[in-house]
Design goal:
Blueprint lengths: L1 E5 L8 H18 L3 H11 L3 H8 L13 H4 L7 H22 L1 H22 L11 H14 L4 E5 L8 E5 H18 L16 H17 L15
Antiparallel strand pairs: 1-2, 2-3
InterPro entries: Peptidase_S54_rhomboid_dom, Rhomboid-like_sf, Rhomboid_protease_S54
Membrane topology: Multi-pass membrane protein
Organism: Nostoc favosum CHAB5714
């Protein structure tokens, strides 16, 4: 199921959402222009490498230009391919503007980056010895989805289901579409625990625990930052 849009208008111009999309696209263009060897070195430097993060938490200095804790932020702007980038930016485009509308620009940016950090730490918790770089905006965007489903559960999501040459459309409430998405991430995360499988980060695949963790933290942080507050209380935060 691929979402196309929602029927949830905003009252502001979502400058932060636009800026995040632009930053991710520019970072990907930079990656795309690196030769393979340089790209590999760059990703190991700027993405989260769980084993290196574990060592840094233990007080071991790795003497790298980018401290391991900083990769919890830099990794959020990196992607492993065009489809990885396009899928993430599509979800951010559709759902991010409404969350930014309710939180205000400054709080939304804080919320987004915090969800990304906490999502990466969730994935790290389940794969602390992995040497595979973890990267992408999906953990932060999962946080956006967690906030969205709380604030706009009945908003209508329009999407398509690719079936070969046919692309039937569907209209479902957000709680159904995003709830199904979350259950899928949690299921695959559980399926990868203590199991030899092609699912998850150990095979260089998808960081399902980052998705599930980001979603849960987004549902927690959103209300704490004023997701349900009146706008009159939020205007001081650059509404």
């Amino acid at each position: 199921m691929v979402p196309i849009r929602d029927n949830n208008p905003t009252t502001i111009t979502p400058y932060v959402t636009y800026g995040l999309i632009a930053a991710n696209v520019l970072a990907f263009l930079y990656e795309a222009n690196l030769p393979p060897q340089a790209l590999n070195g760059f990703l190991h430097l700027a993405a989260v490498v769980p084993r290196e993060l574990t060592l840094s938490f233990g007080g071991v200095s790795l003497h790298q230009p980018v401290p391991e804790w900083a990769t919890l932020i830099t990794s959020q702007f990196l992607h492993g391919g065009f489809l990885h980038l396009a899928g993430n930016m599509l979800f951010l485009w559709i759902f991010g503007n409404n969350v930014e509308d309710k939180l205000g620009h400054a709080k939304y940016l804080l919320f987004y980056l915090s969800c990304g950090v906490l999502a990466s730490l969730t994935q790290w918790f389940f794969a602390q010895d992995s040497s595979i770089p973890s990267l992408g905006a999906s953990g932060a965007i999962a946080g956006v989805l967690g906030a969205y489903i709380l604030r706009f559960p009945n908003a209508e999501v329009l999407g398509i289901v690719p079936l070969g040459f046919f692309f039937p459309t569907f209209r479902v409430p957000a709680y159904f579409f995003l709830g199904f998405w979350f259950l899928e991430q949690a299921f695959y995360g559980l399926a990868s625990l203590q199991t030899r499988t092609n699912i998850g980060m150990e095979s260089g695949g998808i960081a399902y625990w980052a998705h599930a963790g980001g979603f849960i933290f987004g549902a927690i942080l959103g209300p704490l930052l004023g997701l349900f507050n009146d706008k009159s209380q939020e205007e001081a935060w650059y509404q």
